[in-house]
Predict the structure of FUSC family protein.
Amino acid sequence: MRKTFLILSIIFVIISIIFSALPLDTLALLPIGISLILLFITFKKSEVNQRLLPKWLFIITYLCGIFVLGKTYLIKDEVAVDQQFEQQKIETKQEARQELEELENLE
């Protein structure tokens, strides 16, 4: 039973690391929470001399959680206005008007 929980814990820790690196915001907290629950069960089922791997997995999972929360609450997403694109849009509209006026004058 301990091995099953340990394997599931390792799988969810790996998924937590991957989700933490990707820009998924708080969606990464789901595998982190699942891995913490599985690690807690693994830790309780382990004997004292078998608790080294679950301890390291706890540390990795907590670091992933702190990283995700820091990324979510400390980094602000800003949308910058692209002046060059706006200028091109205005120029394109003006050119389209001129072409329409030329077509109307030809008729």
Remarks:
- Helices lie at 2-21, 29-45, 52-74, 83-106.
- The chain has four helices and no strands.
